[in-house]
Amino acid sequence: MPQPPGTLTIPLSGPATLPSIAIDSQGRVVVAWSQETGRNPAIFLERWNGAQWEPLGASAANRGAGGTKGEAFAPSVVIDAAGNPALAWQDRSYGNHEVYYRHWSGSQWEELAESATEGGVSKTNTGYSGFPSLALGTDGSPVVAWEEHYGSKSDIWIRRYSSGLFKRGWMDVGDHPGLTGFPAKISDARFPSLALDAHGNPVVAWIDNQSGSDQVYLQRWNGKRWEELAESASAGGVSRSRNVAASVTLKLDSSGNPILSWKEGDGAGATVQVKRWDGRQWENVGSGVSEPGANPTWPSLALDNESQPVVGYRAGAEVRLRRWTGKIWEALGGFPWQNAPGYTQPIKRQMALAAGAGKVCAAWVEEGASPVIRVGCVSLKP
Length: 382
Description:
CATH class: Mainly Beta
Largest sheet: 4 strands, antiparallel
Number of domains: 1
CATH architecture: 6 Propeller
Strand content: over 45%
Order of helices and strands: EEEEEEEEEEEEEEEEEEEEEEEEEEEE
CATH topology: Neuraminidase
Structural class: mainly beta
């Protein structure tokens, strides 16, 4: 099938899931994903150089950018100040699900303090570590958040890499592993989304059933301890809804204030919600992000150059993009060819969103006779 206008296409040799996308300062798009290769899925990565997709080292061959032998899932990709990508992912090479990390040095994929060997970053031999979210400090030091399971409960763990003289290696952020810690944690915390403020302090949002149903929660590290923002990690958290919440994404605006998006509810009554912390309280960003009856799924959030939220989501077999103008949610054109007669490539669940260099790009997997990763980009310029 010819490539639809306004998109980039990565052909796949096997089923793929969970794409992650980033844009560097030059406007180059980087996509990472998990793809089945023989018995075990591996982490692959390619970068668009303006003319074609290119691997970085062996990132698109054999065992990919991860380079490990076992099952590898759920990549999270970010770009450092030099334009080089860094990756965190979930890996089962040594019998237990752990969180791994590698970065591209410009010539090869490197780990930090055995971050892609045996226990990796997480090193929890009896737990299940998965679905990492990665961020880089201004000095390039990585911080990783993930969900850590013990039995039927799970907590959010956050570690940063320290290269200090007296503290070197992967360190917990806080005085114990996890936001709550076991056995105090009595609910399920899942799917973290991580961001760092201008001082390198982490802010993390996640989905938690502490109040009985899945809601959106958030905590911020103030340099000494983890803190809530207007009871953002108590009772119903930020969402405080009668409906269940899912697919939370966190970004920080130019002032360091958190902005969150998530899906709320199910079926025809589902909506995409966006809230912003104004320094005192959580406020809704407009209303009607998604159209009534659209049944939006897998929403993702990015910010434009003026810190205005841009939301992408699936509506049936179509990916739609909306930007907040300060007054209304405006459509960014989307990709109308997805509903054209004869177009039969169904989207496989997840999609990811990134903004930078004056554009917003969405990445998703399309299944069919010839599965592909499709990347659609729209200009954010006035």
